[in-house]
Amino acid sequence: MTPCPPTIGDFSVLPVSIPPVPSFPRSVLHYLYVRRNTPKIPTPDDERSLFLTNVPVDSTELHLRSLFTALVGAGRFESATFEDERKAPNSVSDAQPLHAARLLAAHGKKRKREDEEAERAREDAAARLPSTWSRPLRRSGSTAVVLLADEKSVEQVLKAVAKMHKTKKYPAWGAGLENVTGAKAVPPLGSVWLRAHNRLSYADKDVVQAAVDAFSELFGKREREAAEIAKRLRNEPDEDGFVTVTKGGRNAPAKMREAEEAKMKMIERAEKKKAEMADFYQFQLRERKKEEQAELVKQFEEDRQRLSAMREKRGKFVPEA
After folding, report:
1. Interhelix angle for 61-72 vs 151-167, to 10°?
2. Can you give the pLDDT at residue 123?
3. pLDDT, tens digit, for every residue of 90-120?
4. Rounded distance, CA 89 to CA 214, Å?
5. What is the mean pLDDT of residues 7-30?
6. Alpha carbon distance 47, 135 (integer Å)
7. Which of 29, 107, 184, 193 could form a disulfide with 189 if both were Cys (CB 3.0 to 4.6 A apart)?
8. φ, ψ dihedrals at 33, nearest 5°
């Protein structure tokens, strides 16, 4: 078997040893690809995070914590976010009506206090239906973002990965997790996992009813908040400076400042268009020149008559001998 190179492009290759299982009683190497996290939209934590791709399908946060502990020791790993968790809606509030989402995003109250964020998290948790799986499986070749303690930890991980290719001592996937018990234990896979899924698929009726009631209440709350905002904004002008009368006020008007700016731009465009159209035809240009000449002649005659009247009023001047 040809050995894998230590790096491929910007990625460092991290081999891990997958222990044997009853369905495949042989240890194999699995290759993760690691690099510094450089998302398209930067975040404050990019300098101390790593981007992983080709994570095993049975990956959990505990698996990655065990892996990075084996690389750089305990206390460096903080959290992990998987691809399906980033793409999936993280809140039942994402299922609110589209017009309510737009109104609340544009004109809603900004949540800054921690108690308000905690209250929203409790509402979302109460309105979420119970999961039917005791443990998720990842899509083959999926990605994850690992957050470490600091930027120095990122450098230490990359150095440990480079050193591993020289020593050929690869960390075992899930090492030590078999001894974890209680609430922190990783649920098993295989037939136990499928039996748990079959059991969880038939949730208690009271639990499901409570989740549905909480979701309906949260849905109605978002609707009422959007209706109050729409009622307040219904008589404000839109981007063209006009007030649009809507039944129910589902479309949010523009802010007053934006409406005034749009109105001034509209007036300027109209005046510019009027000036451009003033001499659009040739006969209009000739007529305008004739009018200007006639006005000059008229002013000349008026000035000449005024001068003559002043001379007659003054009379002839006879100098003394």
Report:
1. 70
2. 77
3. 455 455 555 555 655 655 555 555 566 677 7
4. 18
5. 91
6. 30
7. 193
8. -120, 125
Domain ranges of the chain: 7-206
* Nearest CA-CA partner of 234 in 254, 220, 260: 254
Q: Which of 5, 29, 32 is nearest to 17 (CA)?
A: 29
Closest by CA position to 34, among listed 54, 61, 60: 54
Q: Given strand 77-82, what is the order of strands in its sheet?
A: 7-8, 11-18, 28-36, 49-53, 143-148, 77-82
For residue 235, is pLDDT > 90?
no
Note the pTM of the prediction, 2 decimals.
0.61
Collapsed DSSP state (helix, strand, coil) of residue 181 = coil
170 HSE (CA, 13 A, CB side): 20
Residue 176 or 114, more confident: 176
CA separation for the pair 71, 146 (Å, rounded)? 14
User: Is residue 204 left, alpha or beta, with left meaning phi > 0 and alpha meaning psi from -120 to 50?
Assistant: beta
- Dist. CA 76–CA 171, nearest whole Å: 16
Give the type of residue at 58.
Answer: D
Residues 293 and 287: their CA atoms lie apart, in Å, by 10
